[in-house]
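hey
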């Protein structure tokens, strides 16, 4: 039987970290639990990550950057299309990677990143905000506050995704569309 490559083992460990955190939460996640889920020895796990903190930080950064890239790729067209595209991308991520979505939620809430790592991801929110600000600047969104507009757009999308990720179900398209349409009406009236 052919031995898996170091990269293949690393990816299996990353998936095990995501699945373990999604199932147990950050506090209950241990190196031993991840090793069991990944079906590797604790020694193998330590070849990839020096500590639980480093493991969580590394996986968070990898997943967060990939998720953000998907959001920004979907943010094309006019302001409404760009914002709707980001909504769809968020819900598609939850559908495709429910445990990844929960991992980002739990690790973000636990503030696993170092100050330097936080500085690295801070501009990501600015990129999302810039799309919303464009809609405000163009007069499409009538709410003059970026903070209020972003909260009204992002909060319900995250709540839909979180609720369905925990339930293990995708967000029904009609539910997502109705929610987005109602929010959009409130922002553009």
């Amino acid at each position: 039987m052919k031995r898996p490559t170091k990269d293949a083992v690393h990816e299996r460990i990353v998936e095990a970290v995501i699945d373990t955190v999604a199932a147990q939460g950050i506090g209950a996640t241990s190196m031993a639990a991840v090793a069991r889920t990944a079906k590797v020895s604790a020694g193998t796990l330590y070849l990839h990550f020096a500590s639980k903190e480093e493991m969580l930080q590394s996986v968070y950064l990898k997943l967060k950057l990939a998720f953000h890239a998907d959001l920004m790729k979907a943010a094309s067209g006019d302001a409404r299309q760009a914002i709707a595209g980001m909504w769809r991308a968020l819900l598609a991520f939850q559908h495709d990677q429910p445990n990844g979505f929960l991992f980002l939620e739990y690790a973000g809430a636990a503030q696993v990143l170092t100050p330097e790592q936080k500085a690295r991801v801070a501009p990501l929110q600015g990129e999302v905000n810039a799309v919303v600000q464009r809609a405000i600047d163009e007069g499409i969104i009538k709410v003059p506050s970026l903070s209020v507009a972003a909260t009204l757009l992002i909060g319900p999308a995250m709540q839909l995704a979180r609720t369905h990720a925990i339930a293990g179900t995708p967000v029904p398209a009609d539910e997502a569309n109705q929610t987005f349409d109602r929010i959009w009406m409130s922002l553009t009236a």
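The radius of gyration is 19 Å. Residues 9 and 40 are 8 Å apart (CA to CA).
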